């Protein structure tokens, strides 16, 4: 007879899984209490605590009456509060931790603030909703003209809507307050209305008003009626406004859009920012130092744009677009790309390694221009704006109907100028052109002194020379006209070629005087 398999399994299980007595051994210290969970004799004792023991807080029942907190401590809502006048909750003591517990504070008629406080400190307000009829959401209310200000206030995880004046205001940026993960909307849309004001503001969004803070990070402002975002330091932010979208001392990784006569972005240092503005006299980005950024001002339904795409003291590695204003304007421009309709595309004192393109204005305008490319249709490709001391070096300029490159009495060296349908290739009648190349219908090169240079007059009109100068040395001039290739007073080591179709023996070189 075979033993049933189930009996074998049961026997093995009973032998292998047998356990000792459940009563714990003696020796437990009863003074330890629930930590040890046993009496001295080893008998289990009760370990449960009341909710008040675990998290001692005072409940605030919902209702229709205003609530005033006169003592420090932790409070939490157990229902909605709806008032017809006054404030929803008044914090009248320091050291208050208020948890709205996901409930709402509302007003059925025009009222004060959802939550108000005076000159208190060490306050925490969190986790709930305020809206409907209040003038302010969470707001400091001054008890007098010389009262102290609130200090150490933290507000987090609130939504504030349909208030008419202020969303969340902890008086000013100097109150050492933190406001995080809050949303504010419907603050009236009046000029000067503030959505959020505090010291450190993070991960918040405001609709219809602005944000003011010392440090603002990861925030969004939409359709602010005046300034969108004002901060000492702002990072990873978005703002749109009818006035200046973003005002900051240090601004990084942010986007602003606006219009009118205000700058879209105004900053001390702006890095990795994007600004777009419509008609008006304001700039896209107006700052001291701008790097790796884009600024744009264009015409719109409100009118023409006269502002610059970027206007700064120092601009590096950036792109600017203007209409009648400059694409990029500053004292020092390096590695910029600039576009303008009728203004100078790139305009500065020192312009290096940059590209400027303009329809009717200058492609690049500056006092010292090095390694640049300037392009224009009706204007000049490159223009030296400094009388007698300017320098254009190792640059390239083209123009469709005007002189490609124009000096103002200084030096042009190692550069190329090509004019397609009008003007000179390079024109520097009071200055010097060295080791350069110029082609143009009016003449290739026109300067006072020309050395080691090639110039060609591309038109067959009279008085079109390859090179026109007082002194020419080591150079070559050609012309398609019935004129000499070089016209100068003093010529040394140079060659000029005129149009071979001339009926009389052509002069290769013409001396204008002995």
Quickly list its features:
49-stranded parallel beta sheet; 2 helices; 3 domains; 50% strand; 3% helix; 514 residues; mainly beta; 49 strands; single chain
Summarize the structure.
The chain has 2 helices and 49 strands. With 514 residues, it is mainly β. 49% of the residues are buried.
Overview of this structure, please?
It is a single chain. The chain folds into three domains: 55-240, no CATH class; 243-322, no CATH class; 344-514, no CATH class. It is 3% helix and 50% strand. It contains two helices and 49 strands. The protein has a 49-stranded parallel β-sheet that branches. It starts with a helix and ends with a strand.
Which percent range describes the beta-strand content? over 45%
Instruction: Tell me about the largest β-sheet.
Output: 49 strands, parallel
Low-confidence stretches: 5-17, 28-34, 501-507
Q: End-to-end distance, in Å?
A: 142 Å
DSSP helical segment count = 2
Quickly give the structural class.
Answer: mainly beta
Radius of gyration: 39 Å
Instruction: Provide the domain count.
Output: 3
**Mean pLDDT across all residues, rounded?**
88
Q: Rough shape?
A: rod-shaped
How many beta strands in the DSSP annotation?
49
| Fraction of residues in H or I helices | under 10%
What is the secondary structure topology, with strand pairs?
Elements (H helix, E strand, L loop, with lengths): L4 H12 L34 H4 L3 E3 L6 E3 L3 E5 L3 E3 L5 E3 L4 E4 L4 E4 L3 E7 L3 E11 L2 E7 L10 E11 L4 E4 L8 E3 L2 E3 L8 E9 L2 E3 L2 E8 L2 E5 L4 E7 L2 E4 L4 E13 L6 E13 L7 E7 L2 E4 L12 E7 L2 E4 L5 E7 L2 E4 L5 E2 L2 E3 L2 E4 L5 E3 L1 E3 L2 E4 L5 E3 L6 E3 L2 E4 L5 E2 L4 E3 L2 E4 L4 E11 L2 E4 L2 E9 L2 E4 L7 E9 L2 E4 L6 E7 L2 E3 L11 E3 L3
Parallel strand pairs: 1-3, 2-5, 3-6, 4-7, 5-8, 6-9, 7-9, 8-10, 9-11, 10-12, 11-13, 11-14, 12-15, 13-15, 14-16, 15-17, 16-18, 17-19, 18-20, 19-21, 20-21, 21-22, 22-23, 22-24, 23-25, 24-26, 25-27, 26-28, 27-29, 27-30, 28-31, 29-32, 30-33, 31-34, 32-35, 33-36, 34-37, 35-38, 36-39, 37-40, ...
């Amino acid at each position: 007879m075979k033993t049933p398999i189930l009996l074998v399994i049961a026997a093995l299980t009973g032998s292998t899984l047998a356990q000792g007595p459940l009563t714990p051994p003696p020796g437990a210290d009863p003074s330890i209490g629930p930590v040890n969970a046993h009496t001295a004799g080893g008998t289990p004792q009760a370990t449960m605590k009341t909710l008040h023991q675990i998290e001692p807080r005072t409940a605030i029942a919902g209702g229709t009456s205003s609530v005033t907190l006169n003592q420090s401590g932790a409070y939490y809502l157990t229902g909605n509060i709806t008032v017809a006048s006054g404030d929803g909750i008044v914090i009248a003591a320091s050291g208050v931790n208020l948890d709205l517990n996901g409930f709402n504070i509302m007003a059925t008629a025009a009222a004060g603030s959802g939550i108000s406080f005076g000159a208190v400190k060490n306050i925490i307000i969190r986790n709930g909703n305020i809206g409907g009829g209040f003038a302010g959401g969470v707001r400091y209310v001054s008890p007098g003209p010389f009262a102290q200000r609130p200090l150490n206030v933290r507000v987090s995880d609130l939504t504030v809507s349909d208030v008419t004046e202020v969303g969340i205001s902890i008086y000013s940026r100097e109150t050492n307050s933190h406001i995080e993960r809050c949303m504010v909307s419907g603050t009236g849309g009046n000029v000067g209305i503030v959505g959020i004001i505090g010291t450190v503001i993070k991960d918040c969004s405001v609709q219809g008003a602005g944000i003011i803070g010392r440090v603002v990070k990861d925030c969004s402002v939409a359709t602010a009626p005046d300034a969108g975002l004002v901060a000492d330091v702002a990072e990873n932010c978005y703002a749109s406004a009818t006035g200046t979208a973003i005002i900051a001392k240090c601004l990084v990784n942010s986007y602003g859009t606006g219009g009118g006569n205000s700058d879209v972005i105004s900053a001390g240092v702006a890095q990795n920012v994007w600004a777009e503005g419509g008609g008006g006299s304001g700039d896209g980005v107006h700052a001291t130092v701008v790097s790796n950024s884009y600024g744009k001002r264009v015409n719109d339904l409100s009118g023409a744009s006269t502002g610059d795409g970027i206007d700064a003291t120092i601009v590096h590695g950036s792109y600017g677009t203007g209409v009648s204003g400059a694409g990029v304007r500053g004292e020092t421009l390096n590695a910029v790309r600039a576009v303008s309709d009728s203004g100078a595309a790139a305009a500065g004192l020192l312009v290096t390694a940059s590209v400027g393109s303009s329809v009717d204005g200058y492609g690049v305008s500056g006092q010292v221009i090095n390694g640049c490319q300037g392009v224009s249709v009706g204007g000049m490709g490159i223009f030296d704006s400094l009388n007698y001391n300017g320098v254009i070096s190792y640059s390239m300029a083209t123009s469709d109907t005007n002189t490609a490159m124009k000096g103002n009495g200084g030096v042009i060296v190692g550069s190329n100028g090509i004019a397609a349908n009008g003007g000179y290739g390079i024109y520097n009648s009071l200055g010097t052109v060295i080791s350069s190349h110029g082609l143009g219908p009016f003449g290739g090169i026109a300067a006072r002194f020309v050395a080691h240079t090639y110039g060609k007059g591309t038109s067959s009109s009279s008085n079109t020379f390859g090179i026109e100068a007082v002194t020419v040395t080591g150079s070559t001039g050609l012309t398609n006209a019935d004129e000499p290739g070089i016209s100068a007073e003093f010529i040394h080591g140079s060659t000029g070629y005129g149009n071979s179709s001339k009926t009389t023996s052509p002069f290769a070189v013409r001396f204008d005087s002995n």
